[in-house]
Amino acid sequence: MLLKDVKNIKEVVLTGNDLSLEELVAVSRYDAKIKVDPDAIDRIKASRALIDDIVDNERVVYGVTTGFGSLCRVSISKEDCSQLQENLIRTHSCGYGNPLSREVTRAAMLIRANALVKGYSGIRLETLNVLVDMINKGVHPYIPEKGSLGASGDLAPLAHMVLPMLGLGDAEYQGKLMSGKEAMDRAGIPTIRLVAKEGLALINGTPILTAMGTFALWDGMLLLKQSDIAAALTMEANRGIIDAFDERLHTIRPHRGQLDTAYNIRSLLKNSTYVTHQGELKVQDPYSLRCVPQIHGASKDALGFVKEKVDIEINSATDNPIVLPDGAVISGGNFHGEPMALPFDFLGIGLSEIANVSERRLERTINNSLSGFPSSGFMITQYAAAALVSENKVLAHPASVDSIPSCENQEDLVSMGAAAARKAGEICFNVRRVIATEILAACQAIDLRAGEGFKLGDGTQAAYDTVRKTNAFIAYDKDIEMFKELEKITDVVKRGDILEAVEDKADLKFF
Q1: Which residues form the catalytic set?
Q2: Has this prediction a pTM greater than 0.90?
Q3: Within a 13 Å sphere around the CA of 111, how many CA atoms are in the beta-carbon half?
Q4: Could you tell me the pLDDT band of residue 28, with boundaries at 50, 70 and 90?
């Protein structure tokens, strides 16, 4: 799906089974509305009726008529079941750090709502509707980014998500942070009192770590497409050899990412007269140019694997216990973040490599001894990019190999999936600046060749024109505050302006 098509999604129907990555982004970043599939309502009500029967008959069921975690052997009376759920939210809301971004918060709420729609959580329809109304009306709970072990899911941050539903905590509404009660009142959403099982259904699971990792994935996918554009521009700036992207070469090593990348470069450079052929000016290009399909392609395959896992997770029931239609209530481990922790660590590694090779192309372009271009003014941009690349190498160390036992050793191996997802997001943030810097330097170098009579490719011309709408050629007889130019081009990359312009002129493969 093209980026402009994602932006044009206006409504998403939640069935619990087929929420797509693009729909998640449309709701979370571009404010598409959501509604519950009418066919799901009977499932939700039937699941709730089973919980009510358990409470009425005082059956012993974990988290419904018992305490939580290591207190699972403590029985809770029928009269105290509701108070237990509110106490759970109050005591678990102990997150720390900066708040999650607006879009990650919305994504977490959406993922939780979609899981509840499946009808395995025993929640009331009216409670689910409050969460849906909060998304549609823009009430965004204040959720600190740190505090989740990734099992039993994202307990602490999800508790912060629930607080405004109870008239507690803080929330952002219409750009202002206020008390949760005030935000709900201003939006015209009634607060609720939780009943048996509902608190656990709302906070036990992986929506926070999945939301953080999903946006790192989505933005990483956009960056991988734009890294192909950056590489193509650098190819032209350095008069690279197009033969290395010949389809016949790649079909005999048919990794999907490699094939797609070679295709993209050929598409971007169609009709370019900047590029050369073997032996015309030189025999070989360096790896950072010649091996773009193999390097970018490996990262694309990594992200493809992560996307498969995200597609499953955002349509899964991840709370505990699970209420089955036949009346069985099973306490298991669907809240455990391990299935996402490893992929999000892999995501960070895949993105790091894209910045690594982008920085090498940047260095090649601004290094006078390698390219012949004057480096004054752009030299320190490579220093800054190198610093980000080096930081990514630290951040790429996997979080999922660590574990700290919790809950009196009842929860004795946890995933650290939230840390893995958060690190992937930070890596993505750094990669964006490196790619933006490469694009700016490549356009500068192309302008230095302006008098040589060459023509850009169909796709790279669209990219170049988009860059020049915000970033003019930097004259060498006047020093400027370079960070301002870097901020402008980074914003262009973040918004996807270059990608949208190129998608109208060249066919790009990658999901």
Answers
A1: 62
A2: yes
A3: 32
A4: very high
